[in-house]
Specification:
Elements: E1 3-7, H1 20-26, E2 31-33, H2 42-51, E3 55-60, H3 80-97, E4 101-103, H4 114-132, E5 137-140, H5 156-166, E6 171-176, H6 177-183, H7 187-194, E7 198-203, H8 219-228, E8 234-237, H9 250-256
Parallel strand pairs: 1-2, 1-8, 2-3, 3-4, 4-5, 5-6, 6-7, 7-8
Bound molecules: ligand LPHNJNCV and magnesium ion.
The site of magnesium ion has 4 residues, from loops.
Keywords: Isomerase
Protein name: 2-oxo-tetronate isomerase
Organism: Dongia soli
Length: 257
Amino acid sequence: MPRFAANLSMMFTEWAFLDRFAAAADAGFTAVEYLFPYDHRPDEIAKRLSANGLTQVLFNLSPGDWAAGERGFAACPGRQAAFRDTVATAFPYIVATNVRRIHAMSGCADPTDPKLRDLYLENLCWAADILARHDVELLIEPINPRDMPGYFLRDFDLAGEILSAAARSNLRLQFDIYHRQVLRGDVATALRELMPLIGHIQIAGVPQRHEPDLGELNYAFLFGEIDRLNYLGFIGCEYRPRAGTIEGLGWLRRMTR
Ligand SMILES: O=C(O)C(=O)[C@H](O)CO
Ligand SMILES: [Mg+2]
């Protein structure tokens, strides 16, 4: 059975952000991920990780002004300086948390514009080369447009093209099974084909994005496939609990007993 990381942006939201670390550890998690740490000091987060014996698996570069609709800058025209700033901003958090994987959001832009594909590629290569010196992977994640209208990276084929054009061993795919199912389906075959590119996996039930025990996907089967494909990383539990985080953890107990 794969190892699971609690996503503290979606789970344990009954607690204040910094208290979610202890709550996740008390619930049996040994690893966490979240979208953004930037509202808190790096040393505060590091303290919560070490006090609770948790591994930090992943977080994102800053998306910019989320409330104003910004979703990262990697593919956004005229925002190259802003993108580079997000890498600088992430560094104290990378060092403090010892995270090995960072997700760069593409932002909202037109994916059919070849100039923007070139810009995206250039920005990703620039950031990946800097992160490589610190032994950190940079990830890109196709996100479905129902959840994030206008998002540039909304296609697994485009992600594959970008990764192969970049040819950077530390630039990899964040394979969110929820988004894959909404965008294209054919999850097991895609996992098989894309496994050499995958740096991180996330899960949720489809279509409601609740626990992975209800909906159109058979996660028991998919976890078996992921094991069979020798995926050694964590799986991020990036779902919105149906009725309370703790109450909803029955799926994890059943799968891991
Ligand atoms: O939405 C997702 O699936 C993510 O993993 C992103 O990090 C942020 O939206
Ligand atoms: Mg995701």
